[in-house]
Amino acid sequence: MLELNGISKVYGQGASQVEALRDVDLNISPGEFVAVMGTSGCGKTTLLNIIGCLDTATSGIYTLQGKDVSRLSLKDKARVRNKTFGFVFQAFNLLAEYTVLENVTLPLRYSGVPKRRWKEQGLGVLERLGIADLSSRYPDQLSGGQQQRVAIARALVNDPEIIIADEPTGNLDTGTGREIVSVLCDLVEKQKKIVILATHDGAVASRAQRLLQMVDGRIIDDSTVPTGAVSFSHPAE
Ligand SMILES: Nc1ncnc2c1ncn2[C@@H]1O[C@H](COP(=O)(O)OP(=O)(O)OP(=O)(O)O)[C@@H](O)[C@H]1O
Ligand SMILES: [Mg+2]
Fold first, then answer.
1. Domain interval for residue 205
2. How many domains does the chain have?
3. Is 236 within a domain?
4. For residue 170, how far is its CA from the centre of ligand 2 (angstroms)?
5. Which of the listed residues 19, 45, 215 should we mutate to test ligand 1's pocket, taking the one with most ligand atoms within 8 A of CB?
6. E strand or H helix at 186
7. Residue 62's domain is classified under what CATH number?
8. Does residue 46 line the site of ligand 1, with CB under 6 A?
9. Which of 9, 21, 49, 151 has its CA 20 to 30 A from that of 96?
């Protein structure tokens, strides 16, 4: 489904060069929930951005659904991104002047879905996340957890295969964060989506079946918990 071979990323030039990723190899299959951990600056966001076609590797090969996407043009990258990925960030990134439903349907404007179907599709995903009653509110009328659910709804509205979540619980209290991770777990268990999540929180990471440990731009450990060993509804803490 998704394969990185010898992926490196260098930012900047000359003396100010930073090697954010060094020779990363990685394979991820449908139905995997992968957590990425490591200290600040180790390259988690860089890795997620390259996987999500938000950024381009300096060297190495990235194969997505059997196609080489390592060096796509900006336009092709945007197309792949919109079709294949949903993104959830620490700062919920909702647009303040739009309602919940308008925020959630924003990605549909760029996806070729006819306008008459936007509302139905947006409400459908809000319903699945249990927040259809919030559809006409504005982001500043929501709690943090509700805002993150809306952001997840927006990430899902195009029915992407892969959800990229960069510190999705970073701005939430523990209980609310746990609920948000449960929503992501459900996507993996019930819909066989891929979720790739970066976090500093060991309790959040423990909900994933697979944990990547990064140090200084490298994946130094990649361990998979055998199926059945993880309880999705009662996280180990
Ligand atoms: N646009 C950029 N230009 C230059 N250097 C960058 C850029 N983005 C990231 N870096 C550097 O690349 C390295 C990896 O950064 P990255 O954001 O991937 O780390 P991270 O693991 O996500 O950290 P955090 O936990 O703080 O979010 C860091 O040294 C960072 O300073
Ligand atoms: Mg980061």
1. 2-224
2. 1
3. no
4. 11
5. 45
6. helix 174-191
7. 3.40.50.300
8. yes
9. 49
